[in-house]
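cron nightly-structures :: item 1 of 1
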Amino acid sequence: YQKRYPVRWHLKEIHGYEAEKITYNYENVQRQVGNESFTQSVYLKSISDNYNSTVQFNYEKKFLEEYQEPILNDGDGNLKLSSTFGQYLKNIIITTRVNIQTIEFKYQLQNQIRQLVALSQLEDTDQDPILAFSYKDYD
C-alpha cells in the first residue's frame, strides 16, 4: 500500500503590518497511474495583493522532444514520483490600478533545449526586445 506525502512546500500568502497581503496561486498538474494519482508538476499561476495588483503567469505546452516522461513504476510496482515540467513560461501579465503590461518570453530550441532569447513588452511601440540573451556553444 502506497501513501501520498508532500515533497515540496509552496508559499501561499505573505502578511504585512498594515493588513497588506500578497497571495500566490498555483496550478497542479495531476497524473493518473492505475488507480492512483499524484501531482506531477506545480506551476505558479498568479501573484496578487489586496490593492488589486496582479501578476499572471501564462504557460504553453512543450514539444514532447523537449522532455522525457518518467517511468512511473519500479520493478515491484511502486510508483516512482518524478516531476516533469511539460510547460514553459509564455508571458507575464502585470495588472495595476493604472496599467496593464504584458511581457512576452521568446525562445529558440537548441539541441531539444528551450533557450530564452528575448523578453518583449507587447504594449511597447518599439519592436526591439527589452532584453536579449545569447548563448555560447561548448563542445
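cron nightly-structures :: done
The beta strands are 13-15, 21-33, 36-49, 54-61, 87-95, 100-110, 113-121, 131-132.
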